[in-house]
Specification:
Length: about 260
């Protein structure tokens, strides 16, 4: 199995498990990963998802044998196939549960898409990143919305065009990952994020992500003020909001903990 899902307590771990090919992903792995994210999103017992990878490296990105083969399909099939990779990125970005990427070793090409589509990412200090596509005569196309969102267009100009290898500390500075820790502290750093996420309201967390996407894109105009006001008005009258506010005032834990 190249993709496995393990659920323990409220945490689902989706693992890329094809280390012989450095966890490169082809159409079959893309379909399995997409399905895994959809499944955990629909699973009421799951509160947090960790995307991780077996072996020394997180992922060498798209399988280049598959990339080359897809380039020989007819235009419609080629487009449909590329859309399936775009759908995987979207499935991570829109997963109904918060997603943490756990990164070690190399994360090249499409792997940056997986990481930047996740809500947060933690890397070992041995991690290194590379948008290597231009060296292959292609571009980081379907991953670009997520990678540019993470690093911003100016950094993207540089790293998309140079395909330089980005060290872990630099990746943290430019927003690819949130934290960098020693390799043996990686699991505890991920667990700390898991624990923080478990203390928050599940609905509030997913609404928060959608809110951030909306306010990042739009002008701060009346429509935005109305939208943000409507959101807080809705959530504070909802069951989860009422429970969270009451729990604080009654000095007890909310019922989602
Ligand atoms: N697609 C298909 N196969 C890949 C691959 C990819 N993206 N990346 C690595 N592999 C294969 C290699 O061909 C090799 O196969 P082999 O054992 O049959 O010869 C095997 O995985 C191991 O690769 P190797 O380069 O020896 O591993 P490494 O540990 O020395 O280096 C990387 C790891 C990730 C730095 C290196 O494999 C690499 O640069 N890969 C290309 C990454 C890339 O540019 N991806 C962009 C995708 S758009």
């Amino acid at each position: 199995m190249s993709v496995t899902t393990d659920i323990e307590g409220h945490v689902a771990r989706i693992t890329l498990d094809n280390p012989d090919k450095r966890n490169a992903f082809d159409d079959i792995i893309i379909a399995s990963l997409t399905e895994a994210f959809e499944k955990v999103g629909d699973d009421d017992s799951v509160r947090v998802v960790v995307l991780q990878a077996a072996g020394k490296h997180f992922s060498a990105g798209a399988d280049l044998n598959w990339m080359r083969a897809m380039g020989k399909l007819d235009a419609q099939q080629n487009q449909q196939d590329a859309l399936r990779l775009a759908a995987l990125m979207q499935a991570i970005d829109q997963c109904a549960k918060p997603v943490i990427a756990r990164v070690q070793g190399a994360a090249f090409g499409g792997a940056l898409g997986l990481i930047c589509a996740a809500d947060m990412a933690v890397a070992a200090d041995n991690a290194r990143f590379c948008l290597s596509e231009v060296k292959l005569g292609i571009v980081p196309a379907v991953i670009s919305p997520y990678v540019v969102r993470a690093m911003g267009p100016r950094q993207a100009n540089r790293y998309f065009m140079t395909a330089e290898v980005i060290a872990a500390d630099r990746a943290q500075q430019i927003g690819i990952v949130h934290d960098v820790v020693s390799e043996d502290a990686l699991d505890s750093a991920v667990d700390a994020l898991v624990q923080s996420l478990l203390s928050g309201g599940p609905l509030a967390q997913v609404e928060t992500r959608a809110l951030i996407a909306r306010v990042s894109d739009g002008a701060i105009d009346d429509a935005m003020l109305n939208d943000t006001a409507a959101l807080i008005a809705r959530l504070r009258t909802g069951e989860e909001g009422q429970e969270g506010l009451s729990a604080f005032l009654e000095k007890r834990k909310p019922n989602w903990i």
